Amino acid sequence: MTAYGYHCSHEQIPPSRLVRHALRAQEAGFDAAMCSDHLAPWLPEQGHSGYAFSWLGAALQATSLPFGVVTAPGQRTHPVTTAQAIATLGEMFPGRFWAALGSGEAMNEHVTGDPWPDKETREQRLRECVDVIRALLAGEEVTHDGLVRVDRARVYSLPAEPPPLLAAAVSLESAAEHAAWADGLITVGTEARAARDVVQAYRGAGGPGPARLQVHIAYAESEARALDMARRHWRNGTVGAPECWDIAFPEEFARRTERATDEQLRAGMIVTSDASVLRDRLAELADAGFDDLMLHQVGAEADDQEAFIDLLGERILPELRTQL
């Protein structure tokens, strides 16, 4: 049975309020939650970007939900630091935490002053980071000299079982390549056929573990309001890969998306005012081979989040579970 999670959007919402939303999602019947590790928002007006690992400690303590994070070790965050953060959360909250590792985006990584590598180099660096993190989570002392450097590092507070390390991938090629090391997959999308292709690329290459899908949603009481929500709060979603990986500043995302069309907005998220349409779209995505759907309501206002959580809890999640 597909599990349904609540995506906590640090890029849009202050971390103190996000904890309250996570609690409300648990009370409404969501099965899980997740967030992304960002230094900057996608758009200047989004105006937030709490530190994910600090926040996760509070959110895991405040709820009983399992949580995950998408993070990018290697430039802004050293893999030893990432391993220590993962180990600490895993030790404190056994069986409730996973981390998905990706190759990063310039908007979060450029702050180190180091050059932003090409995609091939970033993928190679990610693989080195994975090896370092796994060894550290196994209690080993690690020295490594490559695209990342490590000198006799050890993580001392370890969980009984290392948390799963998933691959964050959006392309077929990356999904297949990461199958060699990952404990699962997370990707993003709203079209069932394209999402199924990513899962199949991962599974076809021998990829084990759960497949998770992050789904961006603009749900409101009218179609016009839903489109306005999408345009004001998440028009950055109209800039796809690989362009979005190489943009360094939120202001550039704002410039590139100031004339986003309704069609472009709908291509990047589910935009609807009809609960039945939303339910049916989510059912199609679940049928595409995903174990978990992680749902992101793009409206940043407290009322937008609370109305969405309550709608899912009172109607859509029960109907989806009844269909299965």
Q: What helical percentage do the residues reach?
A: 40-55%
Tell me what portion of residues adopts beta-strand conformation: 15-25%
Bulk shape? globular
Count, helices: 12
What number is the mean pLDDT?
97
What does this protein structure show overall?
The structure is a single chain. The protein has 324 residues and is an alpha/beta fold. It has helices spanning 15-28, 52-62, 79-92, 106-109, 119-137, 172-178, 192-204, 223-234, 250-256, 262-268, 275-286, 302-323, and strands at 3-8, 32-36, 67-71, 97-101, 142-145, 149-153, 165-168, 185-188, 211-219, 270-272, 292-297. It has an eight-stranded parallel β-barrel, surrounded by seven helices. Helix 2 links the parallel strand 2 and strand 3. Helix 1 (15-28) packs parallel to helix 12 and helix 7 runs parallel beside helix 11. The relative contact order is 0.15.
Layout of helices and strands, plus pairs?
Elements: E1 3-8, H1 15-28, E2 32-36, H2 52-62, E3 67-71, H3 79-92, E4 97-101, H4 106-109, H5 119-137, E5 142-145, E6 149-153, E7 165-168, H6 172-178, E8 185-188, H7 192-204, E9 211-219, H8 223-234, H9 250-256, H10 262-268, E10 270-272, H11 275-286, E11 292-297, H12 302-323
Parallel strand pairs: 1-2, 1-11, 2-3, 3-4, 4-7, 7-8, 8-9, 9-10, 9-11
Antiparallel strand pairs: 5-6
Helix pairs in contact: 1-2, 1-12, 3-5, 6-7, 7-11, 11-12
